[in-house]
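Here's my example:
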Amino acid sequence: YLKSCRQQLLVLMKEATQQRKFEEIIEDEFLRVQSSSSKIAFCIVGLATIAKNELTIGELQSVLKKISPDYDAVTALAELGGIVEIGESGLIGRHEIYVRHVMDLLVTAENLQSSLVGFLQHFVQFGQPVISRLNKQRGNLFKFLLNADWVHETFRRKRALDLAEAMYSAVELEYQRDGHYWLQRGLFYRKARKPENARDCLEKSIAAFPQNDYAQHALAQQKLMDAARHRIRTPVSERDVREAVAALERQDQRRG
């Protein structure tokens, strides 16, 4: 038994050592990238890679230009040789494990925020609601970029939730009529424990797209949560409960 345990321990130690060497190689390669445009270009392609998308050089150029008119995709890609590759349908990070490791540990919160804002400004040019103007693959990418759970967790780990909030705010004017944007922003505020902001955004989501059952459910849930925060029943909390219950019952009836 002891011999078996020692063998298993040796295997685990060997795997851990090999993993660390691999991570060191990954980190060293990215840290050699000097220009800010190349670092942001990696972040843009990396976000697409994690969302199972490949970008065209034209799309990368469009997103980069939203961030800075001085950025150039071809120049950036020349510095990213071996880190970003050309796949069957476009640009892709060399390996998703590589991309996730670099995004988690080495990409700054500022560059991540800039990349997200650039992406969202790129997508809004196709019209609103944005999700209805994109094909399935790009639609999945768009939903991933706005996803409240992912945005909150990623920026929380980087200790930069203020930059996540600023990211949503940066595109507010362009997305003022986009229900999905307001829904995800509202859910982000809920996770950030800002109930007033959450409720305001969820109400704007429904105003932009009243047929969205998910947004209706999220607002009803928020009203119940708001009512539960009051230690003493008030006319406002009682109204919130009534409205939330009525909305949930209507949804239940429609589902039949």
About this structure: The radius of gyration is 22 Å. DSSP finds 13 helices and two strands in the chain. The beta strands are 84-86, 91-93.
